[in-house]
Design brief:
The chain is an alpha/beta fold and 253 residues long. The chain has one domain: Alpha-Beta Complex (Spore Coat Polysaccharide Biosynthesis Protein SpsA, Chain A), CATH 3.90.550. The protein is globular. Helix 3 packs across helix 5 and helix 5 packs across helix 6. Helix content is 32%, strand content 22%.
Length: 253
């Protein structure tokens, strides 16, 4: 595959990208009375933290937030009057919501797109920089990821007392977001997988099922996904530490 340059994919004066943020999920594992993306950290919703983190990145022009049809909470956030945010109605599953977000883009004008989980507010600008740079330099889409460090066990059933085997972890990675792919290729990959009744867990899985190349870009372990109640405290800690670091760095400029 020939190496493509950023100038080929985006207008030279822009060098900016759109990010799709699927936010139509319920998040049942959080045991909350409303969707987890609207839980509060420092008087802001998780979704607000995530979207604002993305929009303050110099290479991100707009965020497409994909909401459920019956969403009652978005209008209570501080995101409602931002012209750089586009609202789209999503579907039943995450992949359906991502596809609706992709349909809101022009594949000719926006030939690359990023997709980021609503419940990952701690992603760093450095990680986004690294992902964009590596994908554009190689001309191949990819995703942020971190190597697996824990011992991984596989059971022959969901019951813990059944036979266990230890999985070789040297080539295992935790998939993170953002994930970045060519817009048209990602649309076709998702549509094709859905037509075949295949399971799509994230954008990279759709690309893999389509037989297209994908690459791993080393990311930060701070980029956690808030899934369970205890994750909220950890995300709060990371956000506080990142704020302190940014204030310290800015004071040295």
């Amino acid at each position: 595959m020939s190496i493509q340059t950023q100038d080929h994919f985006m207008p030279q004066e822009l060098h900016q990208y759109s990010v799709i943020v699927p936010a139509a999920g319920v998040g049942k594992r959080m045991l909350a009375n409303y969707p987890k993306q609207y839980l509060q950290i420092e008087q802001q919703s998780i979704l607000s933290h995530t979207v604002n983190r993305l929009l303050t990145h110099k290479k991100i022009a707009k965020v497409i937030v994909v909401l459920s049809e019956n969403d009652e909470y978005f209008n209570q956030t501080n995101l409602t009057d931002n012209d750089d945010i586009i609202k789209v109605i999503g579907g039943k599953e995450r992949v359906d919501s991502v596809l609706q977000g992709l349909y809101a883009l022009s594949g000719e004008q926006e030939q690359w797109v990023l997709v980021h989980d609503a419940a990952r507010p701690c992603v760093t600008h450095q990680d986004i920089d690294n992902l964009i740079e590596q994908c554009i330099t190689e001309g191949i889409g990819g995703l942020l990821a971190v190597p697996v460090t824990d011992t991984i066990k596989q059971s022959d059933d969901k019951k813990s007392e059944n036979k266990l085997t230890t999985v070789e972890r040297s080539h295992l990675w935790h998939a993170l977001t953002p994930q970045m792919y060519k817009t048209v290729e990602l649309i076709k990959a998702i549509e094709q997988a859905q037509q075949q009744g295949l399971t799509i867990t994230d954008e990279s899985s759709a690309i893999e099922l389509a037989g297209l190349p994908s690459q791993l870009v080393l990311g930060s372990r701070e980029n956690i996904k808030i899934t369970r109640p205890e994750d909220l405290s950890l995300a709060t800690f990371y956000l506080e530490q990142q704020l302190k670091t940014n204030l310290k760095d800015n004071s040295c400029v």
